[in-house]
Amino acid sequence: xAAKSDGAAVSVEDDNTPRSLSEPGIPVTxxxxxxxxxxxxxxxxxxxxxxxxLVFFSDGATDxxxxxxxxxxxxxxxxxxxxxxxxxxxxVVQVLSFRxxxxxxxxxxxxxxxxxxxxxxxxxxxxxxxxxxxxxTVLHVLQLGQVWRxxxxxxxxxxxxxxxxxxxxxxxxxLMFESADITMLRLLEAFLKSAPQLVLxxxxxxxxxxxxxxxxxxxxxxxxxxxxxxxxxxxxLRDSRDDKLPMSYKAVITQMxxxxxxxxxxxxxxxxxxxxxxxxxxxxxxxxxxxMTFWIIQGETDFCMSKWEEIIYNMVVGIIYIFCWFNVxxxxxxxxxxxxxxxxxxxxxxxxxxxxxxxxxxxxxSYALVVVCLVACSFALGxxxxxxxxxxxxxxxxxxGSQWGGCVDEGVVSAVGVAGVIDACLTPSQGSQTDMVITxxxxxxxxxxxxxxxVPGERDKDRDRxxxxxxxxxxxxxxxxxxxxxxxxxxxxxxxxxxxxxxxxRKRYPAWDAHFIDRRLRKTILLLETSSSVSxxxxxxxxxxxxxxxxxxxxxV
Length: 557
Prior knowledge:
Blueprint: E1 2-5, E2 8-14, E3 26-28, H1 43-73, H2 76-116, H3 122-141, H4 145-162, H5 165-208, H6 213-240, H7 249-274, H8 278-298, H9 307-323, H10 334-358, H11 365-393, E4 406-413, E5 419-426, H12 428-431, H13 459-468, H14 482-495, E6 498-505, H15 514-517, H16 519-531, E7 537-541, H17 547-556
Parallel strand pairs: 6-7
Antiparallel strand pairs: 1-2, 2-6, 3-7, 4-5
């Protein structure tokens, strides 16, 4: 069985023979929701999705309520702008969501129809398919596509927890795919709707020198939605990649507070400047967007499957960079973050100082000083939470330190349920490597890699060790017995299932893996999940292979 995915050769084969670590390719598997892989779906995960639904409804409802209030007051200009920033972004996101549904469900419905045949079972099945199409169409016309996806994610999470190992893996894959779709859609909607809406309402409040309760409620909901979606996006992205440690909810909340205060300071500075210099504010926004987009393009991001999609993505990230920091490049980001926040601080000071100097006569000095202090304190609080996140709560450790290391002692359960204790000591240089061979690493250990050449006398020992650990290699602790490792290796070989080989190098974090953004690969994975007793492995082409190895790999594909 073979498929073609955006120019990348994809092959699927049943793998029941042991593989050594010297084989070309980067095999990776999604963390499973059992004890052998990723963490199971918990009540805290369910509460997080319910809170996300609450944020979604509060943001949209307050905006619509405020638009109706403007209409009743006779402020038709503010009514029109408020309504436009609600309807247009929502329609764009609904079109994209429905397009994904059409692509995902069309082949599934055709396959179900072919399987049912022309007998008596076919008519009810076709009726269900038609009802699903009508239901999804009505949902997206009513702008409720994201609501359905959230509810579907809750259902998949509950099913992944309640079922046995086989169906549990299948529901876990679908849950991760659905969560990725939701976060991408909501992040796009947040910066197309919530961010402009926040600036608009703050400008209206400052221009009118009065704050209506609905205006404050709408602005607060928009700000919470922005901060929530950035933090949620980072969490789901880390959960989707088995080469990165998951983000705890403490880290997510801290990151949300970081973005809440920095975006708050940024939007207040924008609103202050826009209330006095409307034309120059538009010029400033366009100029800032162009500079940031050019900076992102120069960084050579690798998120999308084609060049033009990548350019469009960079332009969208340029819009995000108007308001906040958003990491789009693999590797240490301290220098880039320092440059970005230095530029942001200078811009905030300049915009606020210009408003303070040229503000209208109706604004008193005491009121102006309070507003200036609000901007400064908000930015300082955001910087404080950013430092807290990177110094204490970052999943990879205190990355702001010059050197850090950690030793993790944990009972690791293998793919067949054999427990062993592995002690791993690692450094940032080891944990940041991404071009290496792994398959379903423990979710509490970063990947490791040997950086030096083996001593000639040690080659036989390394070969024996590779044969004992064909999947994921770590430095065994003294307490790990060879017999235990041999039993684990033998059982793992017996349980190996189909392998999906993708003739592409694996994308570097913080990009999504290709099998998350390419929907044809999703279908292949889900199909194999239902037809195989063990979870399929994903194998990417290694970007560190030599030209001869690449040629041999492409020949086998």
